[in-house]
Amino acid sequence: MTYVQTYTGQRYSPDDQCRLHYGLNSKLCETIPEHICTSMRCTNPTTGECLPEYNGAARGTLCGLAKVIHYFQCQAK
Questions:
Q1: What span, in angstroms and rounded, lies between the C-alpha atoms of 5 and 44?
Q2: Helix, strand, or coil here: 74?
Q3: I need a labelling partner for 10 at 20 to 30 A (CA). Which of 48, 61, 70, 73 fits?
Q4: Per-residue pLDDT tens for 14-52?
Q5: Domain 8-76 carries which CATH code?
Q6: DSSP strands (E only) in the chain
């Protein structure tokens, strides 16, 4: 049997990660893709305003053209 490792960021988009962290109506605030490696801002699910930053997006999250987050850095796939 072969085991293929799947990172959280491969399963959950940045918007999904915001919803999991803050609630159903939260989503990623507009940002430069590479910036979500170290800090990610999500909207308040009630007001829609951007909340303070929290840790970067999950490993495996897309962070640019053919790049993914790996150990808080945006790296080529």
A1: 32
A2: strand
A3: 48
A4: 999 999 999 999 999 987 788 899 889 999 999 999 998
A5: 3.40.1620.60
A6: 39-40, 54-55, 62-64, 67-70, 73-76
3-class SS shares of the chain: helix, strand, coil, % to 5: 25, 25, 50
Q: Are strands 39-40 and 67-70 parallel, antiparallel or unpaired?
A: unpaired
Angle at 64 between CA 62 and CA 73, to 5 degrees: 75
Total-model pTM: 0.87
Q: How far apart are CA 61 and CA 54, in angstroms?
A: 15
Structure tokens belonging to residue 40: 């990610």
